[in-house]
Design a protein that fits this description.
With about 475 residues, this protein is an alpha/beta fold. The chain contains 12 helices and 28 strands.
Length: about 475
């Protein structure tokens, strides 16, 4: 866009925002809204100015140099008698802005039951409660909610009032979606329809943490680091070896990365760019370079979004407006039948602004996200044991890798998924499972090796209770009668 076009678009945007602000009612935070809109306008203005230059310069990309990524095995073991001292320097923050809509649920994703009757939030609270009790410390548990999850989360966390865990919350920003055709903010009023607004990605965590006052509160308490992760990553637990390394070596920002597999080719990766650590996301890659980006040989690691960040460094960089220049993620959507765009940022992209930023190459066990019912099937199975909120690999499994599970469309919603299992099968010896079509499982089923079950269109397959399937392909319209 020309500078004149950008100026006129921003002026029209400004008028729409004033109109929205004028629609606020008594009790609604007009000043807070206008403050958020200042951030939105900066982001939108940068997008307009750079939208034809959104791809990285491929020639400037280099693999992380020696010393930028530290293997987990090279970290010094934290002495047990030092853990309490380190715990008092820590707070734990979970990104809790997402809904469970992709899994067919209503409300915050964090309240989906993932292990027995325990939710994502329950598991994390159990972990921190155990830590606090064992070490006689008070590590706080902080949730960054969105306008979509705030109200329901506030109700849910009341049940933790008598736990040995202090639960604190703040909200990330609420930005207006942009109509693609005319580049105008979608909403006409402050509270007409939530579909017209969006939370602008977890890169918003730095400013929103600061604005909430909780960042300064944590610093005043003597806390030095925040461990930040996605609420649905069940592998993201406090690791004192990592925290000890950060404190001992004055690392301001550490990104946990893990080895890439063919299932992770779209995940963001850590690179060196213009002499700094940088998170490279697929959205920043020119279409002609996407296949190269997906290469496991060239880009061997990906970002788990488990981040360890120095609190005073966040405070310093927010005050310096450093995060106003974070890479923009362009996210097209449809809302109310209208083509819209969302402009987002990623927390990991903040790495380039911090001093002495590092990657820590961790084991796959620290990346255990539940994004689908296929993931849910694995974490609910006997592959894992539960210990004080931690999911630990069952020692009876002969290998450390997790089975590759692909459940079809009939299993997409949690409610449908639950109806199709009388009990989660024994998968200790499973390598790969693919299920497609109208399939149900009885109780006590055992799956081993590679199992493929395909019910043809209009057909149904019922796997009877007690069945043992080992390296089997089952298809058509049938019920298995023998084991």
């Amino acid at each position: 866009m020309s500078s004149d076009s950008i100026s006129s678009t921003l002026a029209a945007c400004e008028e729409r925002i004033k109109h929205i602000a004028d629609s606020t009612k008594p009790g609604q935070d007009r000043d807070g809204f206008l403050s958020e809109m200042d951030d939105f306008k900066k982001l939108f203005g940068r997008f307009l100015a750079t939208k034809n230059k959104s791809f990285v310069d491929w020639a400037k990309i280099s693999p992380p140099p020696e010393g930028m990524v530290i293997p987990e095995a090279d970290l010094t073991q934290c002495p047990p008698n030092k853990r309490a001292q380190l715990a008092n320097k820590l707070c734990v923050l979970k990104l809790n802005g997402g809904l469970g809509t992709t899994m067919g649920c209503v409300g915050p994703k964090s309240v989906i039951e993932v292990r027995g009757d325990m939710t994502f939030l329950d598991l994390t609270v159990h972990q921190i409660q155990h830590l606090n009790t064992e070490l006689n410390v008070t590590v706080p548990f902080i949730l960054m909610n969105s306008f979509n999850t705030h109200k329901e989360t506030q109700k849910v966390i009341r049940k933790y009032e008598h736990c040995n865990v202090r639960v604190l919350t703040f909200n990330q920003s609420r930005f207006p979606r942009i109509v693609k055709d005319n580049m105008m903010p979608f909403p006409e009023t402050y509270d007409k329809n939530q579909e017209e607004w969006y939370p602008p990605g977890h890169g918003d965590v730095f400013k929103s943490f600061f604005k909430s006052g909780l960042l300064q509160q944590m610093i005043a308490e003597g806390r030095e680091y925040v461990f930040l992760s996605n609420v649905d990553n069940l592998g993201a637990t406090v690791d004192f070896n990592i925290l000890n390394h950060l404190v001992e070596n004055n690392v301001e920002f550490a990104m946990e990365v893990t080895d890439k597999t063919r299932a992770d080719v779209k995940g963001g990766t850590l690179i060196e760019y213009e002499g700094k650590a940088k998170l490279l996301e697929i959205a920043q890659v020119h279409p002609s370079k996407v296949e190269e980006f997906k290469s496991i040989k060239k880009f061997k690691i990906f970002n788990t979004n488990n981040l360890w960040i120095n609190l005073k460094a966040i405070d310093r960089l927010v005050r310096q407006s450093a995060f106003d220049n974070m890479d923009i993620i362009y996210n097209p959507k449809a809302a109310e039948g209208v083509q819209v765009i969302q402009l987002e940022t990623a927390a990991g992209a903040g790495i380039e602004y911090f001093n002495n930023a590092k990657g820590i190459n961790v084991s796959r066990s620290r990346f255990l996200p539940v994004k689908s019912c296929s993931d849910l099937f694995v974490v609910q199975s006997n592959i894992y044991n539960l210990d004080n909120g931690l999911l630990l690999m069952n020692p009876k499994r002969a290998f450390s890798s997790v089975p590759l599970v692909k459940l079809g469309e009939n299993f997409k919603k949690v409610s449908d998924y639950l109806k199709r299992f009388q009990g989660i099968p024994d998968i200790l010896e499973l390598d790969q499972l693919t299920v497609s079509g109208d399939v149900t499982f009885g109780g006590g089923v055992v799956l081993k090796g590679t199992v493929i079950i395909v019910a043809n269109y209009g057909s149904r397959i019922d796997i009877p209770s007690g069945s043992v399937l080992e390296n089997k392909v089952v298809s058509g319209n049938l019920r298995i009668l023998d084991h």
